[in-house]
Amino acid sequence: SIVSSKYRTAYHFQPPKNWINVSDPTFFFLSFKILINRQSFQICDYSKDPNGPMYYNGIYHQFYQYNPNGSLWGNIVWGHSISTDLINWIRLDPAIERTSPSDINGCWTGSTTILKGHQPAIIYTGADTQMRQVQNIVFPKNVSDPYLRDWIKPDNNPLIQPIGQGLNSKQFRDPTTGWIGPDGLWRIAVGAELNGYSAALLYKSEDFVNWTRVDHPLYSSNASTMWECPDFFAVLPGKNSGLDLSIAIPDGAKHVLKMSLDNCDKYMIGVYDLKNDAFVPDTVLEDRRLWSRIDYGNYYASKSFFDSKKGRRIIWGWTNETDSSSDDVAKGWAGIHAIPRTIWLDSNSKQLLQWPVEEIESLRREEVSRQGLELKQGDLFEIKGIDTLQASFFSVADPARGFLEQADVEIDFELTSIDSADPFDPSWLLDIEKHCREADASVHGSVGPFGLVVLASDNMEEHTSVHFRVYKSQAKYMILMCSDLRKSSLRTELYTPAYGGFFELDLEKEKTISLRTLIDRSAVESFGGGGRVCIMARVYPVALIDGSTRMYAFNNGTSNVRVHQLKAWSMRRAQVNLKKG
Ligand code: DQQ
């Protein structure tokens, strides 16, 4: 199989390649292995769930599930990186390692909470000597260390054990950030299987160390059997209106319960019923296929945190590799994080919106822009950049195309006619990917498909399409956004689905549909309708290896669309460094 370092993302977070530092005693052992297999020197990195993200004393901390010894899951510890801008990172030594009976088999996912007196604490799941899942706490060894390098385990871990009726000790993990309950005591929720069904179990504590289980879950559902990585937070409409959980919740705020299941991150919007100390969703959907998703693509185990620096809530999600595990070993790394996103409530309080944090724009370099482009059915408009700098580095055949492997594209489509929109069939909501497979970019609709083709090879044999289709449903319009990976690569043994998500738009008011796509080598991350639908995807085109990829705007619908504004920027590589000592 073709494996290349060209698939390594330039600005999506991942730990730097983990080279053994010379002081490591195993270095000499490994050096013999080098003679046999070069790969062994470059110890592979496997990173997974974002853990305990937080902003503390001017530094953003990103922890993550991390296997320092290989590029597959196992020996899991908490990797630790720090940043001042969420884009450029310094990798530190792991913050939590497998050193006690209550986490000897893995330091699994958890969250940070900033306690009274501005004291951070992490509660995380440990896989103990009997492979039970228990909840442990660690505190910084020295809060005046700006990097919070060292974390100390008190000897009374585990704080919470999977005992109690109906609990499954192997389905009891991923404690949330704490919040203050109606009685002034701390709360956390833990993902669990309770009597065979999924639950966010509720615990309360006065001192954040001694916990007792509340006699009912925060929320539970018979529609699924287990929730991983729960998250519970309050939201308001408006991008910079993030809410920390330890303050009184203002009027107009809603609560969100997010859970990971079915390889997706889903969420419900509702209220935190203070009287009953329980989450009550605004609508209960028996069929979990209809639950809203944070992201309709390759995105899992997300965690949000309140960023007190800019008063916003930020969500981090993990995106795995979709090549083969032997490729991952050959590549030497596996697992990235999606771009950190600001997350907030739509003005109609019916859905969440997300947008790449503004700091990502600091990586923008060459800009190309175009206004008022008319796209008739069958039109394909190539987006070319004049990127001499990048071209000189990579000496690509056509300098205009050098910048397309790392790009940020914003394009909005003005609809010329919406009356002819095809009728919407609600059954599509039960399997949106099936609909995206059937109604692909080559199938003419009345309004759409129109959108972008990215990472396309010269003859279009390889290409990834991100496009919209407009449907009419009684008095409203349903917009389908697809990210179709089926022709993304000539390579086989890849997972290449056609992802899809629907969002509602009032096209009577506003006849423009916007799309933003971040292209980062093997990552294509798209935001439709101003962040109403997000689709993160992984692609491994062969064309990426010889740096000859093209980008187009297209329309394959019967009615014309006008590209009101198109802007594309080449994106610089983010800094990722190792910090010694
Ligand atoms: N990954 C962790 C678990 C979590 C899962 C283990 C989600 O704590 O439930 O690495 O990807």
TrEMBL record:
UniProtKB keywords = Glycoprotein, Glycosidase, Hydrolase, Signal
Q: Which GO terms describe its molecular function?
A: hydrolase activity, hydrolyzing O-glycosyl compounds
Pinpoint the Glycosyl hydrolase family 32 N-terminal domain residues.
47-356
Whether Hydrolase counts among this entry's keywords is yes
Q: Which GO terms describe its biological process?
A: carbohydrate metabolic process
Protein name per UniProt = Beta-fructofuranosidase, insoluble isoenzyme 4
Which parts of the sequence belong to the Glycosyl hydrolase family 32 C-terminal domain? Answer: 406-570
**Family indicated by similarity:** Belongs to the glycosyl hydrolase 32 family.
Q: Which Gene3D superfamilies match?
A: Exo-inulinase, domain 1, Glycosyl hydrolase domain, family 43
Q: Which InterPro entries match?
A: ConA-like_dom_sf, Fructan_Metab_Enzymes, Glyco_hydro_32, Glyco_hydro_32_C, Glyco_hydro_32_N, Glyco_hydro_beta-prop_sf
Q: Which domain of life is it from?
A: Eukaryota
Q: Which organism is it from?
A: Paspalum notatum var. saurae
